[in-house]
Amino acid sequence: MVVAVKPHESAVIRIEARRRWLALDLPELWAYRELLYFFVWRDIKVRYKQTVIGAAWAVLQPLMTMLVFSLFFGRLAKIPSQGLPYPVFYYCALLPWMYFATAMQAATNVVVDQQRVITKVYFPRVILPISSVVSGLLDLVISFAVFIGLMFYYRIAPTKAVMWLPAFTLLAVLTALGVGLWLSALNALYRDVRYILPFLVQFWMFASPVAYPSSLVPAKWRGLYGLNPMAGVIEGFRWALTGQGQPPGVLMAASAAAVGLLVLGGLIYYHAVEGKIADVV
Question: What is the pTM of this model?
Fold first, then answer.
């Protein structure tokens, strides 16, 4: 802000945006924490408003998908399950995948959905994709209750690897945020993105070890395969929850590096187009 005062003239105040190359200003986000809470709470209420089953949708979607995968990929195709029962093998992979897919789609559309707010009131625009990613964690918690029941039913006890679960959950959150930043900005500029999104979700699922273990990928290609961030997240969830599968290694290192670049690039691009969003949205 520049203030120039001349004799016998009123002060001239010019307000300029701060020159930043990232869209993440932590002090500013903290100042708007109540607004972030409001957006998260509103997303949760809207998601289950006027629904008959309510929060049970967070259970039915992974549960029905798990049953289909167990039948076709497990019983019929005989995909290896790393010594785990097929329902456990698929459900613990669907936990992070369903969260990621839901959060990514919500974050992609949030800027367009909130166009009336964006054009009238100033607030850090990055709050919008962050709120969509955070609100999806409730579904993850609800669906996790079913997995605990599966563990009891199949008498599978957690191992010390479960201590890694918060780290893999954070990796899933950052992956959804990174992709959401890119797609939400692109969707505000190019509305074709919303039509590409269903295909992207479907393709990404089969490119990730949801229906099969990553051990089927040749060892020499696992570093490259790990550049898919969800590959490390899903295998990490399997290993942390059951003690079976791939422990943190080359696959996880590649996925963590890819997530870091994804989030950093997403913040830079989001900030680059942030000034245009209000005009084109």
Answer: 0.87
